[in-house]
């Protein structure tokens, strides 16, 4: 998926909190959850999402969605990762 396609998708869902983020190599979060749904598009590098069912690796052009309350951890590899994330609050 392209950045423009993803922005169009988010707009169609009424998402108005869109964040362009860059994570330095070795970025890692502990297991946590959010009070919002998050949809993410990888623009550069790779994004690694750990869920109860295992580790999922997303590469450039791939998307993922983490629903509110879902326990997860996020990290990347040895290269910077850039993502575009849309947040939907309940």
Structure description:
By secondary structure, the protein is mainly beta. The chain has a single domain (3-89), classed as Sandwich (Jelly Rolls), CATH 2.60.120. It has 1 helix and 7 strands. It has one helix at residues 3-12, and strands spanning 17-23, 36-44, 46-51, 54-59, 63-66, 73-75, 81-89. The strands form 2 sheets. Strands 1-7-2-5 form a 4-stranded antiparallel beta sheet, with helices on one face. Strands 4-3-6 form a 3-stranded antiparallel beta sheet, with no helix packed on it. Strand 3 and strand 4 (54-59) form a beta hairpin. The chain is globular. It starts with a helix and ends with a strand. The model has no long low-confidence stretch (mean pLDDT 96).
Write the SSE topology.
Layout: H1 3-12, E1 17-23, E2 36-44, E3 46-51, E4 54-59, E5 63-66, E6 73-75, E7 81-89
Antiparallel strand pairs: 1-7, 2-5, 2-7, 3-4, 3-6
What ranges have pLDDT less than 50 throughout 5 or more consecutive residues? none
CATH architecture assignment name = Sandwich
Estimate what percentage of residues fall within beta strands: over 45%
Helix content: 10-25%
Cα Rg: 12 Å
Query: Helical segment tally?
Result: 1
Secondary-structure element order, as H and E? HEEEEEEE
Q: CATH topology, what is it called? A: Jelly Rolls
The CATH homologous superfamily is called Jelly Rolls
Average pLDDT figure: 96
Shape: globular
CATH class: Mainly Beta
Strand order of the largest sheet: 1-7-2-5
Largest sheet: 4 strands, antiparallel
Structural class: mainly beta
Q: How many domains make up the coordinates?
A: 1
Number of strands: 7
- Tell me the distance between the termini: 26 Å
């Amino acid at each position: 998926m392209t950045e423009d396609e993803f922005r169009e998708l988010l707009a169609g869902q009424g998402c108005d909190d869109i964040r362009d983020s860059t994570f330095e190599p070795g970025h890692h979060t502990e297991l946590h959850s959010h009070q919002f749904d998050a949809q993410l598009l990888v623009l550069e590098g790779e994004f690694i999402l750990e869920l109860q069912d295992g580790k999922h690796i997303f590469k450039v052009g791939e998307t993922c969605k983490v629903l509110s309350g879902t326990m997860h951890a996020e990290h990347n590899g040895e290269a910077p990762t850039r993502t575009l994330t849309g947040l939907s609050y309940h």
